[in-house]
Amino acid sequence: MKLTFSPASPFARKVRIAAIELGLIDKIELVPASVAPGTPNDDYQRITPLKKLPVLILGNGDVILDSYVIVEYLNELAGGSLIPDYGPTRWKVKSDHSLLQGMLDSMLLCRYESITRPEALRWKAWLEDHWNRAWSGMARFEARDDVLSGPFTIAQIGLVCVLGYADFRFADCGWRKAFPRLDKFHQKMLQRPSVKISVPPAA
Ligand SMILES: N[C@@H](CCC(=O)N[C@@H](CS)C(=O)NCC(=O)O)C(=O)O
After folding, report:
1. What is the CA(186)–ligand 1 centre distance, in A?
2. CATH fold of 2-78, please?
3. Is 0.90 surpassed by the pTM of this model?
4. How confident is the model at residue 34 (pLDDT cuts 50, 70, 90)?
5. Considering only CA atoms, which residue is closest to atom 11 of ligand 1?
């Protein structure tokens, strides 16, 4: 299997952490890919019209896209428990992950708005709105004991990726001071080799 990959991508990081935890990382070749809004990449778009990474390319050429769906696929392949199989816990974990995914989407849009978009076209209120969504999400998880001290699932992986991306791209945002329980959670998670090895490189 091949995974299109960038060490800066929090979505690709999510899949990498899951693959390590599930014991599948040795079966996956990480293929560097470079994508950015406003920049054509015809070769990559032949793999996925959405021109986003990561995607997982199977041995038979099938393409699985969206980081959540890739993790779901790997979890099934390995018989893992990153996504609970049934019952209320399943829906709680999936819903928590959706919130975290939305937070990552908003953070990425903030990054694109402040770096990629030409300066004259930037929209401050829109950027602040998206940052506020990510920040409000962090405040929500600060109060979620069940996630902060619960079993290791896709929700915890998603939260690690949000906090790592905040460190990587928004180093001065002050999340540790504002959310001390998230800080403690993050420190605990960094003891896992999968989390430690996938920390984004210094910007
Ligand atoms: N929902 C997608 C989001 C993936 C995504 O937004 N990836 C970013 C890289 S971190 C990307 O490819 N951006 C390029 C673009 O939006 O043009 C997933 O979870 O895989």
Report:
1. 23
2. Glutaredoxin (3.40.30)
3. yes
4. very high
5. 52
